[in-house]
Amino acid sequence: MGVQKERLVLGLTVVFGAMTALVLLLSIALVEPVLFFVALPLGAAAYMFWYHSSGKLRERVARSQPGARSTGEGRGGFGAGPRSGFDSARGQQAREEWERRQHQRQQRERRQRADVGPSPGLSRAEAYRRLGLDTDADEGEIRRAYRERIKEAHPDRGGDEAEFKRLTEAYETLTE
Q1: Of 60, 79, 78, 56, which Cα lies nearest the Cα of 69?
Q2: Which residues contact 133 (CB under 8 A, 6 or more apart)?
């Protein structure tokens, strides 16, 4: 979270806390029970702002994400024992295995997209040629080549608008 957002949330915490205290004092001084019930939601809001600004909310959300437990805390179902996080050796191996499978799945999907053949507009082979790449280039190489070529062809920098559109079409074809 940015510094400005942190300051804003901290400021809201102070403002709502002060309003809660003021309304509570008024309810006691005026012996007005309605004001007490007005102070309850203000106090709840102040607590939630504090919970957010302290970082505890972010930690709780991170812990609730499946597979995101890094402390080994918590227990599974009945008799499951403690869960192992990614900080443990077994957890690290599981994480590496998961990343390897994700990479394989992405590679499989890329090959399937390449095997589909020409799209209605531009073939993948032609798109690679326009960007000056080999057909086995990964996404990072495609992005770098596109950025380099687009700098020269951008109309705002004195380049050709038609070439700019051709490069953009090639990039979109390869990244879809």
Answers
A1: 60
A2: 141, 142, 145
Where does residue 26 rank: exposed (0-12), middle (13-18), buried (19+ CB within 10 A)?
A: middle
User: What one-letter code names the amino acid at 120?
Assistant: P
Q: Per the domain annotation, does 83 fall within a domain?
A: no
- Work out the burial of residue 143: count CB atoms within 10 Å of its CB; fewer than 13 is exposed, 13-18 middle, 19 or more buried: middle
Tokens of 122: 């531009």
Total residue length of the chain: 176
Residue-wise pLDDT for 104-149, tens only, equals 888 888 777 765 544 467 888 888 898 888 888 888 889 999 999 8
Same domain? 39 vs 56 = yes
Whether pTM exceeds 0.90: no
Q: What secondary structure letter does DSSP report for 73?
A: -
Q: Which long-range contacts (CB under 8 A, 24 or more apart) does 137-144 make?
A: 139/175, 142/171, 142/174, 142/175, 143/175
- Displacement of CA 8 from its chain's centroid (Å): 21
The verdict on 131 and 175 lying in the same domain is: yes
CB atoms within 10 A of CB 69: 19
82 phi and psi, to 5 degrees?
-70, 145
Answer for the pair 20, 43: CB distance below 8 angstroms, yes or no.
yes
In a domain, 71, yes or no: no
**Which residue(s) pair with 75 in the sheet?**
82
